[in-house]
Amino acid sequence: QVQLVESGGGLVQAGGSLRLSCVASGHIFSITLMGWYRQAPGKQRELVATITSGGSTKYADSVKGRFTISRDNAKNTAYLQMNNLKPEDTAVYYCNVDEMKLAWRTIYNIWGQGTQVTVSS
Fold first, then answer.
1. Is 106:71 a contact under the CB 8 Å cutoff?
2. Which of 10, 19, 22, 75 is the 20 to 30 Å CA partner of 92?
3. What is the pLDDT of residues 6-47, one digit of tens each?
4. How many other CB atoms are there within 10 angstroms of residue 37's CB atom?
């Protein structure tokens, strides 16, 4: 059974920081791209940041300079450090894995259950 579990969300004042974690569990050989997406009420899910197994990163323009994505391949874990948070960052944040190689097969486009981030003004 493969699972992505996010944690670290919560309520924070504008200007504050949060660190999200996403742990992939299962008999995992490797993971290619890991990413964070978010969905605010009434809006479509949008890309926040992605990171390859080699550490190459990509960010949405709205979070550049404030958010940092990282990962620990040995722990199958991705992180999202969010600094200088703004009310417009309020959303449910989802972890995504693009491709995961297991002992017996490869699975694609896996999502976590999401974690709520609320930034008060």
1. no
2. 75
3. 999 999 999 999 999 999 998 899 999 999 999 999 999 999
4. 21
